[in-house]
Every structure is written in C-alpha cells, then in structure tokens.
Amino acid sequence: MTKIYVPRDSAARSVGADEVAAELAKIDGVEIIRNGSRGLLWLEPMIEVETPQGRIAYGPVEASDVDSLKAADFLTGGGHKLRLGNIEDHPYLKNQERLTFARCGITDPVSVADYVKHGGFEGLRKALGLSGADIVAEVTQSGLRGRGGAGFPTGIKWKTVHDAKAEQKYICCNADEGDSGTFADRMVMEGDPLMLIEGMTIAGLAVGASKGYVYIRSEYPDAIATMKEAIAVAVAADWLGATIQGTDKSFHLEVRRGAGAYICGEETAMLESLEGKRGTVRPKPPIPALEGLFGKPTVINNVLSFAAVPFIMAKGGAVYRNYGMGRSLGTLPFQLAGNIKQGGLVEKAFGVTLRQLVEDFGGGTFSGKPIRAIQVGGPLGSYIPASQLDMPMDYETFAAAQAMVGHGGLVVFDETVDMAAQARFAMEFCAIESCGKCTPCRIGSTRGVEVIDRIVAGVERESNLELLSDLCQTMTDGSLCAMGGLTPMPVMSAIRHFPEDFDKPAQLAAE
Amino acid sequence: MSGKHTLIDLSPREATAAREIALRYGNKPDALLEILHDLQEHLGFIPEASLPALAKALNLSRAEVHGVVTFYHDFKREPQGRHVIKVCRAEACQSMKGNELAAMIERYLQVKLGQTTADGAITVEAVYCLGNCALSPAIMVDDKLVGRVDAAKFEKIVAECRT
Questions:
Q1: What is the pLDDT of residues B108-146, one digit of tens each?
Q2: Three-state SS at A329
Q3: Residue A391 CB neighbours (<10 A)
Q4: Cβ A276–B131 below 8 Å, yes or no?
Q5: Which residues of B touch A (CB under 8 A)?
Q6: For residues A38 and A104, is the Cβ–Cβ distance under 8 A?
C-alpha cells in the first residue's frame, strides 16, 4: 500500500481537496490519509506521496490532474509539472522555526498513535508527575505571552488561578478566531487538535481545574467536528477524562459553539456566551482569573497559547525562551493573508521582520502590484505602510509604532487600496459587532462612519478630522474592552500614514 | 443550515422540539446556544413559538431567551432559503476584490445580502471572516468553505444549489 496524504484542512477543502481525495482513492493499492495542512496554502490541495525518498509533494492538484499524475508514476515520486519534491526541503518550510506547528500536516490529526509517535503527550506525561506550582514555574520560565493578542504573560495568569482558593476552577480556550487574516487557531484544531487538548489538560493540572471548555466560532464547522473527534479519541486512549493514564488526575473537556458574534472573542464576553447568555462584555475587575466562568477562578487562553505549552513542558521553558527577542520570547505562527502570492502559515521566532514575512516567504502581492499597506493584528490592528516593512515582529516595537502584533495575522493590500474606505470599514465593523454595553463603542462607531463620510466628501474637512481624532481618543479611553478601545488603531493609522486618501476632491482638482 | 422548515405551523411542534433538545442538554441554561443551534438545524430557524417552551425548560425568563436569540447573528427568526451562502466581507477578502465579488453576487441573485432569492433556493448573507484568508475571496455554502471564488465558480455553485 502506498500512502497518499490529502489534507482535511478546510482551506484545502475549499479549493477541492475532497474531490482530489475521492479521485485518488480509486487507484489500486493506495491508502489515503487525511492529514492537516502544512500551511503552504497557495499550493493547496497539496498531496504528498510516501516514498523511500521521503514524502514527495504535488500541488496545487485538481481532480482532473490525477490521470496525468498516474501517467507520470507519481506513486514512486515521478516527475510532473506539479511536483514540488520532498516537501521538508521546500524553502517555505525549511526556513521556519516550527515548535507549535511541528506536527501539523505530518500526522493524521485524530490518531493518538500518530500523535505519540511524533512526540505528542510527552509534555503531559511529564506534567502528570509534577506539582501544579512546578508546572506554572516552567511556563513562567518560558516567557510565553498570551497569543490571542494582548500578550499577557501566561505564567502569571496561571499562577493567579493556581493561588486562588475554590472548589471548582475552569480552563477556557478562546477559539473564537474572528480576526480577518488569521487562521492559525483553525489550523491547529483541524490539523493537530490533540496538541490543544494536551495543552489545556496541562493547564488543568497546573491550576487545579478539572473541567475545560473550547469555545469555537460557528464559522468553523470543520474545526468543531475535528475537535469533538479528537476529544473522543483522547478519552478512549485515557489521555483525557477521569484517572488520566492511571493517575488520580482528571480533566474533562467540552466543545461549545459560538453563534456569529465577533465580540465573543473578548474574554469576558466569551464567558457570558459560555454561560448561555448574550455576549456582552463584563467590566473588570474582577478579573476572570479570580471570578471567571460561573464566578469561579478561570484560565482563559487563546488556542496558540495552550498549543505552545506541550513543547514547553516536554523540552523545558529554557529551550522555548531561546527563541525570540526582547520580551517577546518563543515563536509566533504568523499568517500571511489577503493580497499575497504565497499565503499561508509561517512560524518564526519573534524578531523576524515584516519584509521577510511578506516578501521572502510571501513572495509579494498576489496581484503583482506594489504593496501599499499591511494590516497587522486583525481588524483592530494598525495599517502599516510599505515604508515600515523593516520593523521586527515584537510586541514592544509594534506598540512603540502605535501598532500591534495581535494574533499574528498579516493582511496585505496592494496599491489599489483606498485607505479612507478601510478606515470607514473599521468603524462600520465596530458598529455591526459592538455588544452595545458601553457608549463610546456603541455610538462612537456609528458617529465615526458618519464623520469619515463627511471628511471624504470634503465637508469641513479640517474640523471633521479634528472631530474624528477626538472621537477616537474618547473610544480609546472610554470603552470597556478592546473592541471600542482599539477600533481607533486602524482608523488613526490610516490617517497618519495615508492622509492623501482622505483628501480626494483636492486630489482630483490637482490632476 | 439546509434543514426543512415549516411554513405557517401553529401546532405545538416547535415547542415539542425545543423541549426535546433542551432535555438532551440536561435542561442546563448554560447550554442555551447549543440548544438554539440544534433547534435551528432541526426547524430551519428559531420560531417564536419555541421561546416560551425553552424558557420554561431552562428556568429562564422569556426575555432572557429572546435576548440571546436576537443578540447572535447566527440565529434566524424567519425561514431561510434551502441553502445559505455566506459571503466574507472582512479585510483579507476586501484586499482580493471581495467588495466587487459581493456586488456581483447581489446582481446575479437579484437580492441584497441578508435576503433570500425569489425561488427560495438561496439566502445570502454577509459574514466577517471565514478563516480562509490566504485563499481569498471566500464564501461558505451551507457548511462548506469555498476559496478563490470568482464569477464562474459562483455561478456553478448557484446552479448546484438550484437543482
């Protein structure tokens, strides 16, 4: 039997992976394995054939290519116009530092045996023999900061929950990955879900929580299905549930679906949603670490934060912190998105520059036109002009430039982008998705759209620009959470770096 | 999302379905979103008649249940088309001419986003990110993600939805 890997990742499926798999399954003597995606998304559907020379990849494959692949003896790695060679040698992969995504695309995501064969559960195995305080110390030592965007030190958060006294504590995974330009959480859940389960279980052992929830947005039906499948196989293999691996430790995990509200990616809104309520933001304090889900001490982390933990426990926090720069330690799975030639997932240590990501890895724009702006960190992140491409990806460098790394999503725009329209959209999006709890966000966003419309129409431009700036300051200072608080980031960055786009009638007159 | 929906049905069917699904979740109020998802899959939307039954089963006020149903974009209070097509309007898709695609879709189906075609085959709606941002522009047809969407691909999808 020759093994052929065809990703089950929804991005690969979105361009025909299922059809390719069905066509390949008709060939005698092949076994189709539905793996995760390697993250070279512009090459999807990318299939890999297991040969003595390694896994030989072909892509992007369409179902109609299967006949010519057969004619080219692809089962033995034969030459073909879609042949990419041994995928491990591909520069896009070779130049990455994959700690979290080490397994994604290699294994069958819902095979415990495969997972263990590739180093899975080593971290949990170790954690089972440690005290909660020791686990927290290891995570603190790693320098891991929350990968959801805020960058809060994970070890400190865990310690707070560890030290809290309560009968019941909870672990909640925020998998409400609503930021445009991000898909790393989805890829983990579809491509290596057991790693997330392992990370959350370690968190449970660390702080003394016996119950966890994964809150997944409803826009990710494949991730929901794969996570549920992975939980079932983990329970069956005794890596989850009561008496894990014969110890007296237990951890129970449940998947909960979101329902199309962006705001539920905000941690307190997510808690409300997990409790079955409207996803409105809670004022802080109390912090969720002390009074979180159902009022109990709760660890809330992003998928990528939990996913980084198995490596940290297996190899040691000291190894993890060897990557990165300054106070941004370890790696971040960056997501190259939007108008980009080679979009996909690139895990690199902090310190890599934007230019290296979008030019060396990404190959520039999809359209072939010059890059004009990159929105980094989702819809609440700043637009960064092409002149700042040499900035290193580092929490502090970005903060100093009035920008944010966020969840590591990079949305590239070419020179045709209208930055006034993008600024308007940021306000419009905030108006659509605001939970409505606080006034600056609820009302400010609608007023913001109106003011930008007046500026673009050339109505009292100077005073309206001043008004917009004042409004943004009010939203920043007065909003309860990051939704209203950070919406000014894309708006003001667009004005700062691209003032000409807000001055159109004058531009026309000049021509 | 392609479940069958009732037309005008004043029978207690909705209430029965709501009670059965709530019971499946142990009548726990924190499972309300899951219950509503299941109910919508079963009935095609969340009929008004199911709300009092849900409230009673979960020991919530009807206002609380109404509040949740109306807060989340996913929950529909009216029957939808046989297929639901979600069109991504977020930044990554915008950078790949997503706005033009959305306009083309509205013209082609002769409806606005949020509406259902006259033949009841397709409801189109806006969505903000489907997590397919390296293969923009993206849409979702029922539960199936589609990337690198263009006019030809879209027309083929519509033809399939209408058969």
A1: 999 999 999 999 999 999 999 999 999 999 999 999 999
A2: strand
A3: 16
A4: no
A5: 28-34, 36-37, 58, 64, 67-68, 71-75, 86, 90-96, 127-136, 138, 140, 143-148
A6: yes
* Cα distance between residue A291 and residue B13, in whole Å: 40
Nearest-CA residue of chain B relative to A274? B30
Picking from A276, A339, A375, the nearest residue to B96 by CB comes out as A339
* Structure token pair of residue A314: 């297996």
Architecture of domain A112-320: 3-Layer(aba) Sandwich (3.40)
Query: For A315-332, what is each residue's pLDDT tens digit?
Result: 999 999 999 999 999 999
Q: How far apart are the first and last CA of chain A?
A: 68
At residue A333's C-alpha, the angle toward residues A427 and A21, to 5°, is 100
CB contact under 8 A, A278 and B67: yes
Contacts of A339 in chain B (CB under 8 A): 95-96, 136
Question: How many Å lie between the alpha carbon of B77 and the closest alpha carbon of chain A?
Answer: 14
Residue A399 vs residues A7, A403, A474: alpha-carbon distances, Å:
37, 5, 19
Residue A167 token pair: 């009968």
Q: Just give the CATH number of A2-94.
A: 3.40.30.10
Pick A419-510's CATH classification: 3.40.50.970, 1.10.760.10, 3.40.47.40, 1.20.1440.230. Answer: 1.20.1440.230
Sign of the alpha-carbon dihedral angle for B93, B98, B99, B105: negative
β-strands A298-302, A383-385: how paired?
unpaired
pTM: 0.96
Q: Is the ipTM of this complex over 0.90?
A: yes
- Give the residue carrying structure tokens 């504590």: A169
Provide, as residue numbers in chain B, all residues whose Cβ is less than 8 Å from the Cβ of A177.
131
Domain boundaries, chain A: 2-94, 112-320, 324-414, 419-510
